């Protein structure tokens, strides 16, 4: 949908999502969202009656949807394709942002204390794990093994993304891919 203008509300949600991915929850201010989008000051409560909390919840939902779309694009012929595809998503994120951004859901959790935010984050992580498990099943694993591999992959990827950002290197992602591969050394 290139060239189709976003609504102010959509632009604000996306700005919040990117800010949380870059700076964590505490680094996402409504003032910065307004600055990034050029929206007028009254836009926050006009579009998000519950204010910052609602904006954060919707940014998590946006992150969830974005990730499900990314996972859906992985062509998984075997389990290693799932691993490589998922870690490849994160490599594109960290490299594409100059190591400034990681997982917005993780950013929301690390600074989150409101139950609604934490519940939204849990639902987003569950959706990611479910989508990865579905890919592992499609790639030939049984349901239990697919669920275990999906959980392990998501846990490992979250840590690798954090370390990749800290080290300004994709080596943690490459190492994780190698360790989770059924064909080590490839």
Structure in words:
With 186 residues, this protein is mainly alpha-helical. It contains 9 helices and no strands. The protein has helices at residues 8-23, 30-37, 43-47, 52-72, 79-96, 104-110, 115-138, 143-167, 171-180. The longest helix is centred in the C-terminal third of the chain and has 25 residues, at 143-167.
Task: Summarize the biggest pleated sheet.
Answer: none
Order of helices and strands: HHHHHHHHH
Portion in strands: under 5%
CATH homologous superfamily (4th level) name? Tetracycline Repressor, domain 2
Helix content: over 70%
**Which structural class matches the secondary elements?**
mainly alpha
The CATH first-level class comes to Mainly Alpha
- Structural domain tally: 1
Span between N and C termini?
Answer: 37 Å
Q: What is the average of the pLDDT values?
A: 93
| Rg measurement, Å | 17 Å
Q: Can you name the CATH architecture?
A: Orthogonal Bundle
CATH fold descriptor: Tetracycline Repressor, domain 2
How would you describe the shape? elongated
How many helices? The count is 9
Task: Give the low-confidence spans.
Answer: none
Tally of strands: 0
């Amino acid at each position: 949908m290139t060239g189709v203008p976003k609504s102010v509300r959509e632009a604000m949600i996306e700005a919040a999502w990117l800010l949380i991915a870059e700076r964590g929850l505490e680094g996402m201010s409504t003032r910065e969202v307004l600055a990034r989008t050029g929206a007028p000051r009254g836009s926050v409560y006009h579009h998000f009656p519950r204010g910052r909390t609602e904006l954060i919840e919707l940014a998590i939902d946006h992150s969830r949807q974005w990730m499900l779309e990314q996972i859906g694009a992985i062509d998984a012929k075997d389990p290693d394709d799932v691993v490589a595809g998922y870690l490849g998503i994160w490599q594109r994120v960290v490299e594409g942002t100059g190591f400034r951004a990681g997982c917005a859901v993780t950013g929301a959790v690390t600074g989150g204390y409101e139950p609604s935010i934490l519940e939204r984050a849990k639902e987003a992580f569950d959706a990611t794990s479910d989508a990865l498990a579905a890919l592992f099943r499609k790639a030939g694993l049984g349901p239990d093994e697919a669920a275990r591999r999906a959980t392990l992959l998501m846990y490992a990827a979250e840590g690798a993304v954090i370390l990749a950002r800290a080290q300004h290197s994709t080596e943690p992602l490459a190492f994780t891919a190698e360790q989770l591969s059924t064909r080590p050394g490839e």
